[in-house]
Write a structure and sequence with these properties.
Belongs to the universal stress protein A family. This is Universal stress protein. Residues 4-134, 144-279 form the UspA domain. The protein folds into two domains: 1-103, Rossmann fold; 138-279, Rossmann fold (3-Layer(aba) Sandwich), CATH 3.40.50. It is an alpha/beta fold. It is globular. It has helices at 14-29, 48-70, 86-94, 117-125, 152-168, 192-210, 213-216, 231-239, 262-269, and strands at residues 5-9, 33-39, 77-83, 99-103, 130-133, 144-147, 172-178, 222-228, 244-248, 274-278.
């Protein structure tokens, strides 16, 4: 991965939120920023050339306008406009990026799903962490929420979230969720011992995942949370008051490269805050 933060920009209003989020991180971490606009949909039909050229010119002007708007902060900003499939171009850009940032037109509960198939493919197929910025005002919120499940992807999510929480000077809210097996109809209720063991094992696993963070980030406030329920629901409930949420994406080989794990996909489907997907 490279050092630049790549931001996919469009004519959607949320683009400004995505650019602002990326610009702040770039300034604090002294990273270069690349604004990438992709003009897609061309079919090669007769008479299409002039339309494509106009679209490219408009995209270039939009990218340069955003670059000028944030350049005053001393950030190294470059722009790039390409033709082609937006998903493919963004995934290609992620190969040499430290972070890929995209916007979502999701506006909270009651809105349509946060990302369609294209957005989910970007989050799942990128070669670097992906940050999805919803069209929500998150000012006044506090904390970085991370879903912890003890998997390799989960460990990477914890590392990413801890670094971001330390950068933002926000508490790290690390949540592990346990879900009991569905009770057979003839069983009635769960044995108390079973529930207590699930909670204890989850708490122990969370402690292992967080071990070492306090020595690495001595000024970081860490708030471990063990909850019973369904992971994506719990994560988004906590994220609704947070500045950032972080989840891991479980890669399952080349065939499933464009598939997210069910939990991360469900978190993205109902974005509660700016959300990072780490794999």
């Amino acid at each position: 991965m490279g050092e630049a933060i790549v931001v996919g920009i469009t004519d959607a209003a949320v683009t400004r939120r995505a650019v602002d989020w990326a610009a702040q991180r770039a300034a604090e971490r002294r990273q270069p920023l690349e604004l990438l606009a992709v003009v897609g949909g061309a079919t090669g039909a007769v008479g299409e050339g002039a339309i494509v050229e106009a679209a490219l010119a408009e995209a270039q002007a939009r990218a340069e306008g955003e670059a000028s708007r944030i350049a005053a902060g001393g950030i190294e900003v470059r722009t790039r406009v390409e033709r082609g499939n937006p998903v493919s171009r963004l995934l290609e850009a992620s190969e040499n990026a430290a972070l890929l940032v995209v916007g979502s037109d999701y506006r909270g509960p009651g809105s349509k799903a946060a990302r369609g198939a294209h957005g989910l493919r970007i989050a799942a197929g990128a070669h670097c962490p992906v940050v999805v910025v919803p069209d929500l005002d998150t000012s006044g919120r506090s904390g970085v929420v991370v879903g912890v499940d003890g998997s390799p992807a989960g460990e990477k999510a914890v590392a990413f979230a801890a670094a971001e929480a330390d950068r933002l000077r926000e508490p790290l809210i690390a949540v592990s969720v346990w879900t009991p097996l569905e009770v057979p109809r003839n069983m009635g209720v769960y044995p108390v011992e079973y529930l207590e063991n699930l909670a204890r094992l989850t708490e122990e696993s969370l402690g292992i995942s967080l071990a070492g963070l306090r020595s690495q980030y001595p000024d970081l406030t860490i708030e471990p949370r063990v909850e019973r329920g369904y992971p994506s629901q719990i994560i988004n409930e906590l994220a609704a008051q947070a500045r950032l949420a972080v989840v891991g994406s479980h890669g399952r080989g080349a065939l499933a490269r464009f598939l997210l794990g069910s939990i991360s996909q469900e978190v993205l489907a109902r974005l509660a805050t700016v959300t990072a997907v780490v794999r």
